[in-house]
Amino acid sequence: MRRVPAYWILVTAAVFAAPPALVRAQENSDCLSCHGDKSLTAERRGRSVSLFVDERRVTASVHGGLTCVACHADLQGKELPHDVPLARVDCGTCHTQEQKDHAESLHGKAVARGDPLAPACVNCHGAHEIAPVKDPRSAVSPQRVPFVCGSCHREGSPVSRQREIHQANIVENYSESIHGEGLLKKGLVVSATCASCHTAHRIFRHTDPRSSINRRNIAATCTQCHAQIEAVHRKVIRGELWEKETHVLPACVDCHQPHKVRKVFYDQGMADADCMRCHGRGDIASSRDGRSLFVRQEEVKNSRHTKNACSQCHVGVNASKSRPCETITQKVDCSSCHAEIGQQYQKSMHGTLLARNDPNAPTCNECHGTHGVRGKSEPKSSTFPINVPGLCARCHREGQKAAVRYIGDEHNIVEHYQESIHGKGLLKSGLTVTAMCTDCHTAHGVLPVANSESSVNPRNLPATCGRCHHGIEEKFNASIHATVVGRTDKRLPVCSDCHSAHTIRRADTEGFKLTIMTQCGQCHEEIARTYFDTYHGKVSQLGYTKTAKCYDCHGAHDILPVADPRSHLSRENVVGTCQKCHPGATRKFAGYLTHATHHDPQKYPFLFYTFWGMTGLLVGTFVLGGLHTLLWLPRAVQMRRQRNRGKQQAEQAVVEANADGNGEKE
Amino acid sequence: MDQGTTGAKQYLRFTRLNRLLHVVMIVCFISLALTGMTLKFSYTAWAVTLSHLFGGFESAGYIHRVAAVLMVGIMIIHIVDLFRQRKKDYGSWKSMLTGPDTMLPTKKDLRDLTGSLRWFLGLGPRPRYGRWTYWEKFDYFAVFWGIAVIGSTGLMLWFPEFFTQFIPGWAINVATIIHSDEALLAVGFIFTVHFFNTHLRPEKFPMDIVIFTGRMDLEEFKEDKPEEYDSLVKAGALNDYLVDPYPPIVIRTIRAFAWTALGLGFGIVVWIIYAMLFAYK
User: Fold this and answer.
1) Complex ipTM, two decimals?
2) What is the DSSP letter of A370?
3) Contact predicate A543/A514, CB 8 Å
4) What is the pLDDT of residues A285-317, one digit of tens each?
5) A301: Cα separation from own chain's centroid
6) Does residue A449 have a pLDDT over 50?
7) Is B169 in contact with A588 (Cβ distance < 8 A)?
8) CB within 8 A of A374, min separation 6: which ones?
9) Residues of B numbered 23-82 whose beta carbons fall under 8 angstroms of chain A's beta carbons: which are they?
10) CA A369 from centre of chain
11) Within a 13 Å sphere around the CA of B67, how many CA atoms are in the beta-carbon half?
């Protein structure tokens, strides 16, 4: 307690400056005439509490020289016995600074809020028998601090369960830590207690810049005791940066976890400059395979990992060796920090291939790069949305290593994607929220479509597309095509069956509108064929879209059986559906058979008999007319021959006559 | 084929109005056939091409309906013309409909039919046909029948919203079948039987263009319609019907038009056969 000298001045002043003759002196003996009785009790919140004050202990306490009314100030000048209860003793009258610190702290704020669990002075320091801090009897002497704090912060206490405390098992961890062991087992009172790190009264969240355990302050807090720690850590942290640039350096707690601090040998770190002494040279190459081991510092500096030390990723260095890296035995393992992503990757097709030692298996650096790794929101990053299709294409483009081992139906996926609405949105319009490879296939959990865990497996596809097309997904999930609605053992369509996987087009383009009918027809064969027998289908077949197609009547994603009252074609809705194109449509109009066939006498007898009646008329007329004509043909030919013969004879006669005439003239 | 080559007078068989109506009817009929068939045979690649050629299904439909209205117009003009003829040339319906030039079937037509069949089979001489033969009368009434059946069903398809106020929706499906099959009958019959009977008969080959010129050689007239010729000679009225032939340029123009119509007609027949036999779905 830094303010102890001031405290003593106050106590002395209180003792000696007390007015010797008050109008009505209130001596301690006046109080003790009642409170000296051990049987004095009162009702507080339905419980009987003792009001006995042990005079010996009060006298022996640090406040022994004060009168009762010095603290119980509201009794000054009052008649005794007094009204109950008394006001809370205000320690701040004397302990101004402590009071102020406490009021600012988390504890003080909680008191001010009226939090029933919030600690006031008395909760830690006690009431009448407060001893000096150094006195082992004091409630806040170093050995007892963990118990005082632990009374609220122990495991399972109301505070640890009901308040937002980010650390678990605080007391347990502390008591097992090197600090706890020193204090509690070895009785080393200089060992750090709760208050050594958290301070006694200025207790803040670790995120609060005023807090002694804030990252910016933790080094200063630890160095209160560990004064020479820079020397110990000089390989990890260059001393002069410790205080100046604390934000770019690891804080003590990054390695030595709070409360769990143990006297163990932590991995010895390396300063990057030590690595760069060799790897900063352009000509450095591996002695094994000759590849360059040069590290461009510029690249690291602009990367996401600029704050990480070389040795954090390249683990296993030994700083005591002249070549510290010679002890490195394993490759960089990104999952030591990115643990969750690592787990996803291991389950993915990429991870499975790696586990099989497949030389084509892509590892983290295949996509993310090495020293220059950037976040996916940085345009220069290889994983920035616009760059992802090109990134995946390195292996998945036709002819490349992933594409050649693929045995499914999706080919030219890169080109198809580029031409699709998603590809155009992303690559031509630069719309970075447009779906690209990893939006559908996930980034790290890529699995083949046949795998039921895959994001593009039919089971999961509606949800995958629904991540962006949420409204559509909701409609689809209520439609007959959703597995929960259309209970059938037949295969039900999902998004990709109509929209394709990589060649997705806008649904309002002609091409899409026309192909959708054959898409529906893949399952609904009969109904599609008969559709093409009627006007709507025939116009569609000619390549025009301004006519009713499947989804115009049945709906697109909200298709329901006709029997369902919510269906677009239910008795309630069908006329309205027709009226979308035929404003004058009536219930009778809706009786038009849009899927009619004249080949089914049971279902459509009128059409069947009309068709065959007309066919009979046709055949009859053609047979009679044709027969008549065919019989006529030989006679007609004969007539033609006769006429030609007659004409030739006539011409012959004319020629002869002319010749005669000419002869006569000569 | 001989018209125009000689300067001899020709027999005038058709009035100017009749010829004009027939030309307009050809244009309408072929337009209706082509635009209609694109829908009927929409499953063939031909139909798709043709539909685009017409400027899309909507514009094809527009052409179809304009031609249909014109066709009905032709029929109305013809009927008006019949009234006019009754007044001017016959005086009464009775003399017009019972006279030798009547379009109504007569006992002579029945005799001519049996006579023709006998002639075809070599059992008798060629009947002495009059002004209108029985097959010409058949063609004539076929047009009335066709316009009535195709026209009425066509109206139902044109205004389904109006008609379904009185008739059930499935009747539109029935109308579609009747409209399309009756049209198929009309197109098929005109472009085969009618073409042969009146334009392409070997003795007329390659083409009889009397419907366009209205004129035929006297020799041919005498041979073709001996009864009419005789009655005209007997009545001494033949000279009233003799006119000068058209100049060669007119004949050539007419032939060009006729060949086009003939070509289109045959093309349509080939397309129908192809669509119904080879591409049928």
Assistant:
1) 0.90
2) S
3) yes
4) 888 888 889 998 888 888 988 877 787 788 777
5) 27
6) yes
7) yes
8) A302, A303, A304, A380, A381, A382, A383, A384
9) 38-40, 42-43, 47-48, 51-52, 56-58
10) 23
11) 21
